[in-house]
Amino acid sequence: MTSSSSGVRYDGTLRGDGLRVAIACARFNDLVTERLLEGARDGLLRHGVDEASVSVIWVPGAFELPLVSLRAAQSGEYDAVIALGAVIRGETGHYEQVAGQCAAGLMRAQLDTGIPVVFGVLATDTLDQAMARAGGKAGNKGFEAALTGQLPKPAV
Ligand code: INI
After folding, report:
1. What is the pLDDT at residue 91?
2. Which of 71, 98, 116, 137 is buried deepest, with most CB atoms within 10 A?
3. Contact present, 117 and 69 (Cβ < 8 Å)
4. How far apart are CA 136 and CA 35, in angstroms?
5. How far apart are alpha carbons 88 and 94 in whole angstroms?
């Protein structure tokens, strides 16, 4: 927190020292999600999170991410949860339901628990687009998810 003549500013930090993090990762499209996981680990360790403080929880697909993320957030064992998945339109007729329910469930998990649940789920039209965002030319969404950082806690 910093104070100035224009008021009080709350900001997050990218310091990961001492943080305990759960990563929930979907197996579906694991060619993509393994890379997201690699990126997320890299992002956490580069910002001071201890490797021993990172737990990885595998689930079948993106649809299962909310429940496991909620359980991890409720456990009291973690300061934050990162959910990683890849929903690819070309591979399913129920893309909207899987991607939409996943996003809604992850939001609910963080609002119900007060523990940040980071949305590291790709939703793309093609596998190529997903690969580009999983360490290819468009960066790595897993790394970005790890850099969401510690959210500010404004005084109430
Ligand atoms: N799960 C994904 O993570 N990505 C997808 O693209 C996908 N498609 O294409 O269907 C997908 N489906 C599985 C779903 O997440 C559940 O695991 C399954 O429906 C069982 O509940």
Report:
1. 63
2. 98
3. yes
4. 10
5. 10
Residue whose CA lies nearest to ligand 1 atom number 5 = 87
Q: Distance (Å, rounded) from C-alpha 4 to C-alpha 100? A: 41
Encode burial over 47-60: b for 16+ CB neighbours within 10 A, e otherwise.
Answer: bebeeebbeebebe
Are the CB atoms for 23 and 40 separated by under 8 Å?
yes
Tell me if 24 CB under 6 Å of ligand 1: no
> Which of 11, 16, 142, 145 is closest to 79 using CA atoms?
16
Atom of ligand 1 nearest to the CA of 59: 17
On the question of pLDDT at 87 being above 70, the answer is yes
Residue 43: how many other CB atoms lie within 10 Å: 23
**Is residue 82 scored above 80 in pLDDT?**
yes
Cα separation, 88 vs 129, in Å, equals: 9
Backbone φ and ψ of 111, nearest 5°:
-70, -35
Q: Using 50, 70 and 90 to split pLDDT, how confident is the model at 110?
A: very high
Residue 47 is among the residues annotated as catalytic for this protein: no
